[in-house]
Design a protein that fits this description.
Elements: H1 6-19, H2 37-56, H3 66-84, H4 101-117
Length: 118
């Protein structure tokens, strides 16, 4: 098994490269080795939450819609932002309807990549 959080980050980068319109901000595609410590911890936590969710659901998360999968990742990430930042920017904790389409698609891709690897 790879370092906790790495699968999340790799799925994030792949999703950004696939769904982001135009050229993504450099921070969106920063390789794992250059990712800030707080972000590595957050990625590891969310990856663990997805793996645990798949496990306690006996793998039946495959029946969820892409939106449901993406929403799960998004809400877990928002909790991590609140954990690591006292007063995060509103865009960092935006609810699902306020997220751009590329980010919603990327969050769903993250869930599916982690679930496949679980």
């Amino acid at each position: 098994m790879t370092e906790p959080g790495r699968a999340f980050r790799e799925a994030w980068i792949a999703g950004v490269q696939k769904h982001y319109p135009g050229v993504p901000k450099p921070g969106y595609v920063t390789p794992w080795g250059e990712t800030p410590d707080w972000e590595r911890l957050a990625a590891a936590a969310v990856e663990r939450q997805v793996r645990d969710f798949v496990a306690v659901s006996d793998g039946r998360t495959d029946a969820l819609s892409r939106e449901q999968k993406g929403r799960f990742v998004a809400i877990c990430w928002i909790a991590q932002i609140h954990k690591h930042f006292e007063a995060p920017k509103a865009s960092y904790v935006a609810d699902w309807p306020e997220l751009p389409e590329w980010q919603r698609e990327t969050d769903a891709d993250i869930f599916e990549a982690i679930a496949r690897a679980s």
